[in-house]
Amino acid sequence: MKVSIFGMGYVGAVTAGCLARNGHTVVGVDPDARKLDFIRQGKAPILEDGVEDLMREAVESGRLTVTDSCADAIEQTDLSLVCVGTPSAPDGSLGLMYVTKVCEEIGQAITKKGSRHTVVIRSTVVPGTTLKVLKPILEEHAGGPAGEKFGLAMNPEFLREGTSIKDFYAPPYTVVGTDDEDVFKQVCELYNESGGEELRCTIPAAESIKYACNLFHATKITFANEVGTVCKAAGVDSREVMGIVCQDTKLNISDKYMKPGFAFGGSCLPKDMRAFSSVGRANNTPVAMFDSILKSNRDQIDRAAERIMALGSRQVAMMGVSFKEGTDDLRESPLITLAEILIGKGYDLAIYDPNVEYASLFGSNKRFIEQTLPHLKRALVSAEVALKHGKTVIFGHKHEVFTPLVSQVREDQAVFDLVGMCGPEDVKGSYEGLYW
Ligand SMILES: NC(=O)c1ccc[n+]([C@@H]2O[C@H](COP(=O)([O-])OP(=O)(O)OC[C@H]3O[C@@H](n4cnc5c(N)ncnc54)[C@H](O)[C@@H]3O)[C@@H](O)[C@H]2O)c1
């Protein structure tokens, strides 16, 4: 395939060399004359193991050439990868000056070329940028709509500096955000099966996946370091601790606890967060991320309450109230906190939970509910009564007992789904998912 790559920085240079090695004809574009000279001489514009050899091989094979002319590059190729920098703006937002400028230039060059061209955004951009900012710029300058004058995709890069060539040939997967099947196939063809599993999604999802991955990595590092901080304070070798933590691939290094849904609660997680963080504080080594987690978790509940209140009706049915399905444990249940907020604001709540029967509660569970939500006794009703009562129906558990209730939701009812119990197509009334 004939490919142009805009931006000969870390990502662009490595991508150019690897695609040339894969047999593609590559034109690299960059306004930096020094970088272009380096590459023309078969030298690497960046310092990294293997990149010098990669560039020399690509240039000597004749499969990699470079230019500062956007028009020439578009004219000579079928597909362009945009790999220009997206640095932080002074206020922390994303600096789009390079990526908007390059889209302007590419759009103009497509008009000049006069035939369809595929534009693939590889730079990291926040969700919404490609469709709301870059697509209109391309359409304006290419003189016509996406899909007609040009194909558009978002294809995030997963390489890491230091191991970029290795990462290019063994990425976790190839993610292509596009609504165009032909563009999807064209982008996948670029990687000649070196891209791992090919996954198609929407453009904003592709943009978000890149951020979710990087934020997860940053969170993992901070997590391990905060465990280290507290362990050190307690005289424990955290390498031993984290080594064993990572051996649990069932709950720890797995997709468990990794689905967007409602806040956590129960008798262990909140208590243990507080206790572990307090060891850090007691030793003058506070752990900022762990300290902020319970606040963030509470924000989840407050925001859900605000959205439920915004639905407009004061008559609310809550399906599920224990801290998770399959238990009657109400201690520190986020659904109890949600019920407490709504009742406190004067909302009329009817609650159904197949596992919670007030008369059967005892011990610390009973004491907790008597102290936090004595109204629960009055609010607990049968499924039928709850469903009849609520103008807003909250699904707080994904419980099979609730499945027949979904189809009984009336047209005048609004479902607020905290757990992915159903979808808009399953209910007669309106539907709002927590994060979907
Ligand atoms: N560096 C990484 O490891 C990495 C990994 C994955 C994703 N990313 C993302 O990829 C993008 C590129 O990152 P980078 O580190 O390679 O950036 P970089 O700053 O090293 O390189 C960007 C290049 O783009 C060039 N450029 C600017 N305007 C241009 C234009 N109009 N036409 C052509 N070229 C132009 C610059 O001269 C520069 O050489 C960023 O969005 C970054 O967040 C980076």
Give the gist of this structure:
The protein has 436 residues and is an alpha/beta fold. Helix content is 45%, strand content 13%.
Explain the overall architecture.
The chain has 436 residues and is an alpha/beta fold. The chain folds into 2 domains: 2-203, Rossmann fold (3-Layer(aba) Sandwich), CATH 3.40.50.720; 297-433, 3-Layer(aba) Sandwich (Rossmann fold), CATH 3.40.50. It is 45% helix and 13% strand. It has helices at residues 10-21, 33-40, 51-60, 70-76, 97-113, 129-142, 164-169, 181-190, 203-233, 238-247, 269-282, 288-310, 334-344, 363-372, 376-379, 383-389, 403-406; strands at residues 2-6, 25-29, 64-67, 79-82, 117-121, 150-154, 174-177, 198-201, 315-319, 348-352, 392-395, 414-417, 430-433. The strands form 3 sheets. The chain has a 6-stranded parallel sheet with strand order 3-2-1-4-5-6, with helices on both faces. A 5-stranded parallel sheet has the order 10-9-11-12-13, with helices on both faces. A two-stranded parallel sheet has the order 7-8. The longest helix is centred in the middle third of the chain and has 31 residues, at 203-233. Nicotinamide-adenine-dinucleotide binds at residues 6-12, 29-32, 35, 83-86, 98, 101-102, 105, 123-124, 157, 159-161.
Strand proportion, as a percent range, falls in: 5-15%
Average pLDDT taken over every residue = 96
The count of DSSP E runs of length 2 or more, i.e. the number of strands, is: 13
The CATH topology of the largest domain, please? Rossmann fold
Placed side by side, the strands forming the largest sheet appear as: 3-2-1-4-5-6
Shape: globular
* Largest β-sheet summary: 6 strands, parallel
